[in-house]
Amino acid sequence: MINENKPTVENKENERIIPYVLIFDVDGVLTHPSEKKVTEFGIYNQFIMRLEAGEPVILNTGRAVDFMLKRILEPMEQLLADKKLLRNLFAVGEKGAVSIQYNDMGERTEYVDQLISVPEALQIEARQLVEKKFSDIAFYDTTKKTMISIEMLDGLSIDEFRKKQGDLNIELKEMLTRHGLSTEYKVDPSRIATDVENNHVGKGLGVRKALQWLSEQKIKPEQFITFGDSLSDVAMSDELHQCGLPVEFVFVGEKIILAGKKFEYPVTYTVKQCESGTMEYLENLK
């Protein structure tokens, strides 16, 4: 746990030095993994409190921008009386391929890296595969701009999804091999979805985009706190650690997911899980 009582200060180069920056995955960290919406409404209050204090809040997810807008960003925009505070909110979607940031007036801009998009022919074949063999457990997410994402049906349990997810993953890997794309693209499963994406994307790329944004804003954190619930979220903390930056990883998923994994930085396991675990940690971060 980090002491939050140190004030924000400015140095000679007008850099804002702050005690820490929070970086959140979205699914299973801010939103309920099955209901796919924010059920712990105190999360919004936590974000507003931090934005009002001039603290940055960063989202780093594999989700499409549309999902972030509906579940997180638009509710935040409506709840904030002073829209200018949104300039301290930065959101990365599709594992670093898409980002959203706000100007000093609270106006939103979206950036898409088309150079790392999955070929259209692959997208069509994957969609046909889902409709033919896996429509009982998943749907093809048409809102993604740069990647293929096959997501668990709303209301389905994670255990039910897992029963056939392995077969889905095998078929997708075979599809990449047939197209001669297995060296450029990868199959990346998570608890509630399986993605096909460019090898360069991931939570690490999202962190690099966030670091670039922090630099542009002249914000210098003394430490980072990342929040995740799956193995892929470890890449956030790994990237920061490799950059020589102090980091703490807050894990709100099932402990067994990280069983046997060793870390070179502090890891906190919350008692509660998913978004309840996130609230547990934030409420104790004073």
Layout of strands and helices, then pairs:
Layout: E1 9-10, E2 16-18, E3 21-24, H1 42-52, E4 57-60, H2 65-79, E5 89-93, E6 98-102, E7 108-112, H3 120-134, E8 138-140, E9 148-152, H4 158-178, E10 185-189, E11 193-198, H5 203-216, E12 219-221, E13 224-228, H6 234-242, E14 247-251, E15 267-269, H7 274-283
Parallel strand pairs: 2-12, 3-4, 3-13, 4-5, 13-14, 14-15
Antiparallel strand pairs: 1-2, 5-6, 6-7, 8-9, 9-11, 10-11
Helix pairs in contact: 3-4, 5-6
Overview of the structural elements:
The protein is of the alpha/beta class and 286 residues long. The protein has two domains: 18-114 and 201-283, HAD superfamily/HAD-like (Rossmann fold, 3-Layer(aba) Sandwich), CATH 3.40.50.1000; 117-198, Alpha-Beta Complex (Hypothetical Protein Ta0175, Chain: A, domain 2). It contains seven helices and 15 strands. The strands form three sheets. It has an eight-stranded mixed beta sheet with strand order 7-6-5-4-3-13-14-15, with helices on both faces. A four-stranded antiparallel beta sheet has the order 8-9-11-10, with helices on one face. It is globular and about 55 Å long. InterPro entries: HAD-like_sf, HAD_sf. This is Sucrose phosphatase-like domain-containing protein. It comes from Candidatus Falkowbacteria bacterium RBG_13_39_14.
Detail the poorly predicted runs: 1-7
Which second-level CATH architecture of the largest domain applies?
A: 3-Layer(aba) Sandwich
Q: How much is the radius of gyration in Å? A: 19 Å
Helix content, binned percent: 25-40%
In total, the number of strands is 15
User: What form results from the Cα inertia axes?
Assistant: globular
Q: How big a fraction of the residues is strand?
A: 15-25%
Structural class, please? alpha/beta
- The spatial strand order of the largest sheet comes to 7-6-5-4-3-13-14-15
So how many helices?
7
Could you give the order of the helices and strands? EEEHEHEEEHEEHEEHEEHEEH
Organism: Candidatus Falkowbacteria bacterium RBG_13_39_14
InterPro entries: HAD-like_sf, HAD_sf
Protein name: Sucrose phosphatase-like domain-containing protein
